[in-house]
Amino acid sequence: MNKICIKGPSKLIGDIKISGSKNSVLPILILSLFLDGEVIIKNVPNIFDVNIVIKLLIYIGSKIEYSNSTYYINNKFINTSSIPYEFASKIRASIWIIAPLLYRFNCVNTFFPGGCSIGLRPIDLHIYALKKLGVLFELNNNIISAKINGSFFGSIINLNKISVGATITSISAAILAEGTTIIKNSSKEPEVIDVINFLNMLGANIIGAGTNEIKVIGKKKLNNIGKSYYIPFDRIETGTFLIAAAISRGNITCENVKFDRLKIVLNKLKNTGASINVGNDFINLNMNSKRPKSVSLYTFPYPGFPTDMQPQFSILNSIGTGSSYIIENIFENRFTHVNELISMGANIIIKNNKIIFYGVNNLFGSIIEAKDLRSSISLVLAGSIAIGETIINNINYINRGYENIFSKLKSIGLNFKLFFD
Ligand code: UD1
Known about the structure:
Blueprint (H helix, E strand, L loop, with lengths): L2 E6 L4 E5 L4 H10 L6 E5 L5 H13 L2 E5 L2 E5 L10 H4 L9 H8 L1 E5 L12 H9 L3 E5 L2 E5 L8 E3 L5 H11 L5 E5 L5 H12 L3 E3 L5 E5 L10 E3 L4 H13 L3 E5 L7 H9 L3 E4 L3 E5 L10 E2 L11 H10 L3 E5 L8 H8 L3 E5 L2 E5 L8 E3 L3 H13 L2 E6 L11 H7 L3 E5 L2
Parallel strand pairs: 2-14, 3-13, 9-10, 17-18, 21-22
Antiparallel strand pairs: 1-22, 1-23, 3-5, 4-5, 6-8, 7-8, 10-12, 11-12, 14-16, 15-16, 18-20, 19-20
Helix pairs in contact: 1-2, 1-7, 5-6, 6-7, 8-10, 8-12, 10-12, 11-12
The protein binds uridine-diphosphate-N-acetylglucosamine (UD1).
Uridine-diphosphate-N-acetylglucosamine binds next to helix 1, helix 5 and helix 6.
């Protein structure tokens, strides 16, 4: 499938069971490689990026079984630390394989990681952190060769920018290092907390999850036998469906979620005029058939506003009452949805890293193109409220991060057809 044709506008109404978090499960699957024995990972979303990681694990020797969103992974027979280009280059998450394979083999050969083209996405902080812990690198074109001298060594890692990925790299290489590691200016994202909880479950000693300084006391070995880890819900999928309700003047309940990971997103959604009702394991957003007010925001590391929700709020601000702005502080090239929105009738201007919105009453169907994961879902949201027919090319990106997305969208009333190559 590479194209979706949406007939709008629709009012989106219904209940959605939110899947496990993409950004938690990817590092957790990869870091299971620190164990020799079996580990069980539950509530794993069936998405493209997970499928690539699973294929990569199988390629290097993992024995993997799957049933009911649960992976049973046995890493006893890992037999190579050379990662082919076809795996490394497809996903950003492939960078996390360096530390566990160094632990096992003392040397690793891989390639620069891939992922969505939303900015430069350098890996200098990952390399810096690993070097501090004793890793020696040779970097040629996009080939990475890394080795250690028998072990990682604890150190002080001072990240000059808050990075989810580099925080995870630093923690993972430190858990089995000789001595203690302090990671300064670490990421507080919930997905990093999930990774820490997982590694601590395996026997690591990591202190300071959710703060800007993490301490890792190196262990000799991890000792998990048959324990299981449940991947918490995906906060970005949750926010995306709440936006779907807000822009379509609808009413959607997200199930299997906790509101505390979405505080700033919910505050912004409240400012649109939506009624929000939260319970122990659900969040409901009812727009009461009203047009939302647009809201200004800037993206920032957690607990700031997530960059992964910026394109979705761009749709809201395009049709919200009043004018507003969004400042993108995390990635340089995360505006690929903007020209597509303009072709649908939005009144938007980009100035450097700022998008300025003058809300219009309606968007109109157009032929547009998705260029990355979050822009693809956002353009689908735009199509849901546009008058007439919206055709979105390259819609496959959506499968990188949204499980069963088309059946979920159908269940809340989106009127669409998929076209296959
Ligand atoms: C992760 C998420 C992504 C999310 C992002 C920010 C995964 C698989 N992806 O990406 O969905 O949008 O966090 O919340 O978990 N940086 C450097 N050098 C580095 C690493 C990062 O300069 O070595 C910069 C980046 O270019 C960016 C900022 O740091 O400007 C934050 O990036 P980071 O948090 O590392 O994002 P990712 O881990 O790639």
